[in-house]
Amino acid sequence: MAAKKHPIFDTATTLGKLVAFLGISTICGVLVAGLMVPAVALAGGTATSSITFFDDLPDEMKFETPALSSKILAADGSVIATFYDQNRTEVPLDSISPFIQDAIVAVEDARFREHGGIDTRGLMRAVAAMVQGGGRQGASTITQQYVSNVMNQTHAANGELEKVRQGDSKGIGDKVREIKLAIAVDKQLSKDEILQGYLNWVFFANNNYGIEAASSFYFSTHAKDLTLPQAALLAGVVNRPSYYDPVVNPDNALSRRNMVLDRMLDQGMIDATQHADATKAEIGLKIQENRNGCTTATRAEYFCQYVTNLILNDPNYGKTPEDRDRLLKQGGLTITTTLDPVLQDAAQAQFANFTPANDNPDDVGQALVTVQPLSGKILAMAQNTKLIAREGQFNSDYNFNVDRFDINGNSLGGAGGFDVGSTIKPFTFAEWLNSGHRINDVVNAGVRRYPAGFQWNNSCGVTGGIYDSTNPEAAPDLQNAEEGWYRSLTAREGLYNSLNTATFATAAQLDMCNIQKMMTATGIHLGEDPKQPYSVEYVSSLLGSGEVAPLTMASAFATFASGGTHCDPIALVSVKNIKGEAMPVPGANCKQTVKPEVAAGVTSVLQEVLVRGSGYQIPLQYAAAAKTGTTNNSEHTWTIGYTKGLATASWLGSPENKSVSNNGKLIAGQRLDYVDGATYAGKAWQGYMNQIGGNYDVSFFDAPPASMVNPPVVIPPKPTETAKPSEKKDDEKKDDSVKTDDKKKD
């Protein structure tokens, strides 16, 4: 019986061939592994110890998913932004041009489909060159390079830079380990699987990893569409990416490309005609700059920032912020959002008419945000600044449309909201109807003094505030924007004319706690802290002295548009991992929070705002309702309005220093002494909504019930019939007795 061979010496296997080679190397006094390293003197027992060392090395390769780019998409599937640490998009082999497959094999490993992971012939050639003084020669196969790329790029993605080994930094142990893993990989995977993996991992310079990213960057095409000269050029880059970078060193790249083409011809991969044509071709770069992050978003950079913060703040996407950031930049997520590009582009274009980014010397801020009623979807989120602005442009790190923090105190990148002015008045009116009052009930809007001792009804707190000029230390009397309205009038007139005195007259008959609850029912909260409801601690808050984000206000008005159903605003439709598996996304939590008849009643009056009220100058061509708002000194001006299918908040004001007036500032090429909600915010809202409103539901709103509109008509009783003489005497006696008794009782 033949003696059992130690498997390491089985020369019929690739490993056996390697050991035979190592034995030759030992005789020469060196151990060579992979690419030739400087000679190392070995002791006499080196062969045995090397065999033991080789046996002890791991022979299993763990293939992690490569660090893949994540994409944020608009609702129509168009790309808004890409995020990556290593710019890579993984593609299957059948989506990679055969030209690049052949070119890589020709120049990097001609015997790729013949050897078992390492090329002993190449190793021997490297040894011979070393012995003859020819210097080091490359002998790494595609499989070895694949192993090396996987290990190094995985370490880099995990932040383990000290473990990365490249070129001369690799020691003998590193190379031997790489060789053994390459042998194992060759047994584990098919040649096509190895080639696919290699082409998806290999580095092509300029932060492009994998052939799909390289094809897009250098030639603005997909890997499957690479031509022969393009493929040969890219195949040449991988050997020394910086030196053969066609952007920086085009001559080097061209020379290398032609050498690759020569190899392809020698190996019968192309014919002479193809070779001649390809070598004559221009380098033909068509650079498509890489986009990484929201600052390079194709559109809606602040919406992109908002979506990014939603991902980074949500534990569903990782235990720690670092885990979530790594998932976003390496996890290959596909994040589909609610954004409608048509609406977004139309909203963004409006600012050119008022506060253009390149001609806004007074830094006037402007924003538009649209929410879809009954779904909560954020369809547009635009503002007139840039995250990274060119010289002369207005830039801001803040998203004017959103809260500063989320419910857990994590940053959303928002400005924290702005004083909302008279746009808050519809919510007092909503409670007026909710508590049983009618639209056309008469209120005394002539009352202008509310002294310190005035008792505002607040069942869950205390409401104070002074409007009494008889007190020299108090605020002036309650003022309306125009004279002539200090009189009795209907609650309807008070709202559509935006009369402060009418709002106070209705509130004086209500529970302030219930007004605040109505605001909360529609989603209103403070922009600095969403856990804090809109405060009614001071009666001035009924006139809009609280800071609320435009997104919140658009969502609140959408509650009226939908017939009383409130939905939390949402930006995410789906988030899928690299396997296509759905990850959790926040829901809109749509609920009926306002009575349908109350919502219909509010809407019926807000429609009149655009006909005869404070917004008569900004009507729409569709059935619409709106409310304008202007704070003291015009620091912040608003129009918030809706059709049945869209609710939009339009804001113009001072974003950084919120107390600065916008009167006299350069807006729309002019300087006006007084700016109100309808002046610019309203015109932007009008232009935008007229342009895109027809894309969504523009049917008529439901009318409120008749019993909610007018007070009941008091019908006087019919006169009694004349009694007969004989009967009348008796009735009169009865009447007299009754009257006498009544008088006694009084």
TrEMBL record:
- List residues traversing the bilayer: none
Query: Which parts form a coiled-coil structure per UniProt?
Result: none
Q: Which reaction does it catalyse?
A: Preferential cleavage: (Ac)2-L-Lys-D-Ala-|-D-Ala. Also transpeptidation of peptidyl-alanyl moieties that are N-acyl substituents of D-alanine; [GlcNAc-(1->4)-Mur2Ac(oyl-L-Ala-gamma-D-Glu-L-Lys-D-Ala-D-Ala)](n)-di-trans,octa-cis-undecaprenyl diphosphate + beta-D-GlcNAc-(1->4)-Mur2Ac(oyl-L-Ala-gamma-D-Glu-L-Lys-D-Ala-D-Ala)-di-trans,octa-cis-undecaprenyl diphosphate = [GlcNAc-(1->4)-Mur2Ac(oyl-L-Ala-gamma-D-Glu-L-Lys-D-Ala-D-Ala)](n+1)-di-trans,octa-cis-undecaprenyl diphosphate + di-trans,octa-cis-undecaprenyl diphosphate + H(+)
One GO biological-process annotation of the entry reads: cell wall organization
The alphabetized UniProt keywords are:
Carboxypeptidase, Cell shape, Cell wall biogenesis/degradation, Glycosyltransferase, Hydrolase, Multifunctional enzyme, Peptidoglycan synthesis, Protease, Transferase
Provide the Penicillin-binding protein transpeptidase domain boundaries. 486-644
Taken from the UniProt entry, a GO cellular component term is: outer membrane-bounded periplasmic space
Pfam families linked: Transgly, Transpeptidase
Q: Point to the regions of Basic and acidic residues compositional bias.
A: 724-746
InterPro entries with a match to the protein in the record: Beta-lactam/transpept-like, Glyco_trans_51, Glycosyltr_51/Transpeptidase, Lysozyme-like_dom_sf, PBP_transglycosylase, PCN-bd_Tpept
The annotated region (Disordered) lies at 707-746
Drop me one GO molecular function for this one.
serine-type D-Ala-D-Ala carboxypeptidase activity
- According to the entry, every stretch annotated as the Glycosyl transferase family domain falls at 77-264
Q: Which family does it belong to?
A: In the C-terminal section; belongs to the transpeptidase family. In the N-terminal section; belongs to the glycosyltransferase 51 family.
Q: Which protein, by its recorded name, is this?
A: Glycosyl transferase
Species for this entry: Arthrobacter psychrolactophilus
High-level lineage = Bacteria, Bacillati, Actinomycetota, Actinomycetes, Micrococcales
